[in-house]
Give the backbone structure.
Amino acid sequence: MHTPLCWHAVGDPVDLAAHAVAVGLDEIGFSEHSPMARDDFDDWRMLIGDLDKYIASVERARREFPQLRIKTALEVDYLPGHEAWIRELTGRHPWDYLIGSVHYISESWDIDNPKKLSEWKRRDPWEVWSAYFDRLTMAASSGLFDIMGHADLPKKFCFVPKQDCAPLFERFLDAAKRADVAMELNTAGLRKDCKEIYPCPQLATMAFQKGVPITFGSDAHAPGEVGADFAAARALALAAGYRETCRFTARRREMIPLE
């Protein structure tokens, strides 16, 4: 769940919390796009100087909605060579969890950015997916994260390889299993061009077979998206074989029955 501090979301934490109560959720977590070491890295994430403001805004939501369990977290971009910065961020607050995500397959191309859609038309989808999953596998192996976010993000604009992606999925899931990191079922994909939850059923089923636990996220960038399509995500999880999900407090995982 995101806030206006990332420059592409609307609704303060109190607004998102109010919607969570309205749709019957009893626990939510805010995971704003974390700062990079340079504020001019891109234009869609929280600034370094806004970190305290972010934490204070979540605390306000806690005070106004005491019936909700509200967790404080970050969605952290993984780029090779930035590990020291991620560790520094980790130490700045007692986070409940960190979602590791990959948006960049190079320092300059964030593959889900609609402003850079033309870059896809110059690339072979298999080349892009391979580079993306190489980085996602590195992120899962790093030990820096509790959850891996939107695992098949490259499908967002419907550029999908003709080749079988199972070998890419398998390397990522093996790394996630070794590092004991969970994978998110992210319903935002249903609101994108691909019209499919991240990850696809094949990847979700393989994750269950590998013993990788799951969490649920709506990746909300507006109050009305909080908890969106969770019934569909739950159906995907059950079809893949899952009977449990997990939640985090102070970076400690707890398993919760799905049924």
